[in-house]
Amino acid sequence: MNSLTAIDANAGSALTAPPPAVTARPETPRRAIPSSAGSGRRLGLEKASRFGWALGPFLLVLYWSVLSYTGFLDPRTLPAPWVAVDTAVDLVRTGRLQDNLAISAWRAFQGLLLGSGVGLVLALLSGLSLLGGYVIDGVVQLKRGVPVLALIPFMILWFGIGEVMKVSVIAVTVFVPIYVHTHNALRAIDIKQVELAETLGLTHLEFIRHVVLPGALPGLLLGLRFGVTASWLALVVVEQLNASSGIGYMVTLARNYAQTDVMLVGLIVYALLGLGSDALVRLVQGRALRWRRTLAA
Amino acid sequence: MSAVVSIRGLTRRFTLKGILNGIDLDIQEGEFVALLGRSGSGKSTLLRALADLDHEAEGEGEYSVPDRISVVFQDARLLPWKPVLDNVVLGLRGPDARERGRRALAEVELAGREEAWPHELSGGEQQRVALARSLVREPQLLLADEPFGALDALTRIRMHALLRRLRVSHDPAVLLVTHDVAEAIELADRIVILEDGRIHRDITVNLPAEGEARRERFAELEEELLALFGVRSDTGVGHGERERAQG
Ligand SMILES: Nc1ncnc2c1ncn2[C@@H]1O[C@H](COP(=O)(O)OP(=O)(O)OP(=O)(O)O)[C@@H](O)[C@H]1O
Ligand SMILES: [Mg+2]
């Protein structure tokens, strides 16, 4: 303790800045600041409400209902919401909806898995080695420029018209965003953290496991969100072009028979699938990135 | 006593500009050396050379350093995605690594915060975690580049006391880069001053343990050092020292 007081006596010099004013002079005008903890911040966002996201869709359905009910909307153009519900119930009763849905979901899932795996591995190869970058990155950038639709004829040529082709088309679409975002995140890893790893004597493998991968995880998950959306888009394309099962097929068939209500149900299913899977990824995101302090968190 | 660090004729330059122009320096086992110098004089460059982090610099010369070196940076440099304890034991080998990590955290008075995220800690607490991370490796040499530079004055004084305690229990040789003359006197056995890429002065501190004698020696050293720097404010020396040095 003695030494501490000695510092205090001698080393007021450590106090290079004037000490903060502890006592406020009574004559200075003061502002009353409400001190309820957890009140919203002044800049940025308020604390999010759990179901806030549902407001927009709800208003949309409301608007649509009103238009249908008042007859402004011709049922041949767009059936009313309750018609869509009726049709959906019918489709479920006959089993058509869930059978096709299961097939579609399985395709999308396989494509997503394959595409994510390929995207992640390529991103690691190209992000962590110079040669890998030279070889892989240019090719991926080329691929980015090619639309799926242009690719499908070749995929059919190579893989036939079966499941392999469909899953491949989805995977090829999915891997691009996964690759791009993971690669970006890898390249953005702070040199300070690399130095830290060096001074702590981490092995190459430990470095990748403890520093690189967690550091790139936000990028990977962002890529995954785009990837999931991309997987549904690719699914629609392959199923509507060339399939004998799945939601896309169901919609195509309905179009041939001018069943607008079935088409509409297909559309809604797509929307819900997209929404649901995105929510799932966001959930994973929230769990995996608990350590982050961001505006939205 | 034998030298754990021995530097002979070390030079470093960036794009032809010489920053270190022949450094000779020995640090003995368990010795605490403070490195002072103007901003841009090459203190960090020297430290980074010893830590083998200066891949982008050119230079010659010889130096020998021990195997076990720990570095404390100005920022705590904790991995934000790892809880505190995992940060402390990162790269630590052995079955009892976590137990040792816990003890190190207790030593820096952070017992109970093992599972906290780094962003949940204050700046001073984060820097204490960084200290624990360095010391749990039982380094023979601790390199610290302005480790308390970002902390407020009161926290810094507390950190000084902590560092002095830790030094007794772990006994590493220390090379501390600082801007703060008082900090250097307070902590170090020896103060070396870097100027024009050379060790310009080498001062033994010899601070009595307490009492009036201590205060006198402190003031004397402080005056000497500040005079050496010409007390220019761009050396980072604060107004407090200037006034006392002159008054
Ligand atoms: N990577 C680099 N590339 C080019 N020049 C560099 C590099 N690192 C340092 N320098 C130069 O070397 C000189 C010494 O830098 P250094 O960081 O060692 O100074 P310092 O004594 O630590 O200063 P401070 O007290 O401000 O931290 C500076 O002029 C700086 O511009
Ligand atoms: Mg520096």
Summarize the structure.
Chain A has 297 residues and is an all-alpha fold. Helix content of chain A is 70%, strand content 0%.
What brief labels describe this structure?
heterodimer; A: 297 residues; mainly alpha; 11 helices; 70% helix; B: 247 residues; six-stranded mixed sheet; 9 strands; 36% helix; globular; binds adenosine-5'-triphosphate
Structural class designation of chain A: mainly alpha
Shape estimate of chain B: globular
Give me the oligomer status. heterodimer
Main beta sheet of chain A: strand number and arrangement?
none
Cα radius of gyration of chain A in angstroms: 28 Å
Q: Report the sheet with the most strands of chain B, covering strand number, pairing sense and barrel closure.
A: 6 strands, mixed
Segments of chain A where pLDDT lies below 50 for 5+ residues? 1-24
Overall geometric form of chain A: flat
**Strand composition percent of chain A:** under 5%
Mean pLDDT metric of chain B: 88
Content-based structural category of chain B:
alpha/beta
How many β-strands of chain A, per DSSP? 0
Contiguous runs where pLDDT drops below 50 for at least 5 residues of chain B: 232-247
Provide the list of bound ligands, each named once: adenosine-5'-triphosphate, magnesium ion
Helix content of chain A: over 70%
Q: Strand order within the widest sheet of chain B?
A: 5-6-7-3-8-9
Q: Give the termini distance of chain B in whole angstroms.
A: 40 Å
Backbone CA Rg of chain B: 18 Å
